[in-house]
Design a protein that fits this description.
By secondary structure, this protein is of the alpha+beta class. The protein folds into two domains: about 20-200 and about 355-440, 3-Layer(aba) Sandwich (Aminopeptidase), CATH 3.40.630.10; about 205-325, Alpha-Beta Plaits, CATH 3.30.70.360. It contains eleven helices and 19 strands. Strand 4 (about 110) and strand 5 form a beta hairpin. The radius of gyration is 25 Å and the shape is globular. It holds the Pfam family M20_dimer.
């Protein structure tokens, strides 16, 4: 009896240690356990972990530091024809912060529950794809698959805070140029249904400030053209425009991400006193701020005209400024007003990747999903922004995709989790995608010159 018991104990130990160290789920959980949350993301340890994984698979690894302590890790699986444009799989190393007291399990514990849920900040956004890429390549290599095109995987810092020290430095670099990238897959979002979601564009965020001025006056008088009156009139006009866009969404004619959103984020007015506001003074200045998001289908000049003529017209003593959250080729300054908006690539084309047969990569990608037993929903514009915009600015076709079906969308939320079965299925989806894209012969020249 004691012998049997110790045998069972030995077997238990063997399997538990074994499963801790050698399974795809264990490797995913280890990657989730690095605390990569802002404001102080740990980049060094996950990068060492990824390099050790790359070594065990037999991938080449290089690290670039465009900004000290903010590494970009690049893994490479050389293709048999290195002259063909390569395929790049991107993910970001960092995560948004988590509030541990609002979580059912510590956010960097990667707790695996009995029903197969893995709880961690980053489980969906986007550490899943980071390791799935590697597991897919591990399996393809084990089967003796040889890619025709070179496959690169990039791990970039700071995506969650705008990517300015990450992709915004990497993508315009000589090092990136040398990769001769023909097609990119970057992160997408979970799907609550049976079908996978795919994103062909991001909306472009603008920060809009409008300011009204007018003669100050006694609170008891009715003035024409006072600052408050002018600002309130503008807010009415903007609200009407917002309603017209929202109505289209409510009628089911477009998705939230396909219309222009304009949402008030602050109001600033009033003469302050030590106890509050002077209640009998009409102020000479009043200001409001808006978060404006433009889909790439919108002509930016039309919005600029609308702002100048209707939202903040000079004839009503209004001024305005807008900051496009831009980046990209050249230098970045957060308060730079750029005339040519980031809705266009370097050739002046809308920043979106075509999802029809005129993009030769699209049918290859779509068929790869189907070959893995999956289906895609109608391609979408992402409501927010990702690093994909930097690649699209260079004219490189880029799709956002994270293989998560039947999963609640929990990115940036409390109790972010991913089910083990969903995670494992994603690996086989990437096996299909990586083998199809890397075997694709049709695109024998680079899509666009980037010189
Ligand atoms: Zn993300």
């Amino acid at each position: 009896m004691p012998i049997l018991r110790s045998l069972f104990f030995f077997l238990f130990l063997f399997f538990s240690v074994h499963s801790e160290e050698d399974t795809p789920i264990a490797r995913f959980r280890r990657y989730l356990q690095f605390n990569t949350a802002h404001p102080n993301p740990n980049y060094a340890d996950p990068v060492s972990f990824l390099i050790s994984q790359a070594d065990s698979i037999g991938l080449q690894a290089r690290t670039f530091e465009f900004i000290p302590s903010k590494p970009v890790l690049l893994l490479t699986w050389p293709g048999s024809d290195p002259s063909l444009p390569s395929v790049l799989f991107n993910s970001h190393l960092d995560s948004v912060p988590a509030e541990p007291d609002k979580w059912s399990h510590p956010p960097f514990s990667a707790t695996l529950t009995l029903d197969g849920k893995i709880y961690a900040r980053g489980a969906q956004d986007d550490k899943c794809i980071a390791i799935q890429y590697l597991e897919a390549i591990r399996n393809l290599k084990a089967r003796g698959f040889v890619p025709l095109r070179t496959i690169h995987i990039s791990y970039v810092p700071d995506e969650e805070i705008g990517g300015f020290d990450g992709s915004a430095k990497f993508v315009p670099s000589k090092e990136f140029e040398d990769l001769n990238v023909g097609f990119v897959l970057d992160e997408g979002q979970a799907s609550t249904g049976d079908e996978f979601r795919v994103f062909y564009a991001d909306r472009s965020p603008w920060n809009l400030k409008i300011k009204a001025s007018g003669a100050p006056g006694h609170g008891s008088n009715m003035y024409d053209n006072s600052a408050m009156e002018n600002l309130m009139r503008s807010i009415e006009v903007i609200t009407k425009f917002r309603d017209s866009q929202f109505d289209v969404v409510k009628a089911g004619e477009a998705m939230n991400s396909e219309v222009i959103s304009v949402n008030p984020v602050y109001l600033k007015a009033g003469i302050t006193t030590p106890t509050g506001y002077a209640m009998n003074v009409q102020p000479s200045e009043a200001e409001a701020g808006f978060d404006l998001r433009l889909p790439p289908t919108v002509e930016p000049d039309l919005i600029k005209k609308r702002i100048a003529e209707e939202w903040a017209p000079a004839r009503r003593n209004m001024t305005y400024e807008y900051y496009m959250i831009s980046f990209g080729i050249g230098s970045y300054h957060p308060l730079m007003i750029i005339e040519k908006g980031p809705l266009r690539d370097y050739m002046g084309r809308p920043l979106m990747t075509l999802t029809n047969d005129s993009n030769p990569w699209w049918p290859v990608f779509k068929q790869a999903i189907e070959a893995a037993g999956g289906k895609l929903t109608r391609p979408e514009i992402l409501a927010s922004t990702t690093d994909a915009r930097f690649m699209r600015e260079r004219g490189i076709p880029t799709l956002g995709f994270s293989p998560m079906t039947n999963t609640p969308i929990l990115l940036h939320d409390h109790n972010e989790f991913l089910k083990d079965t969903v995670y494992l299925r994603g690996i086989s989806v990437y096996e299909s995608i990586i083998s199809s894209l890397s075997s694709f012969k049709g695109e024998s020249h680079k899509m666009h010159s980037t010189s």
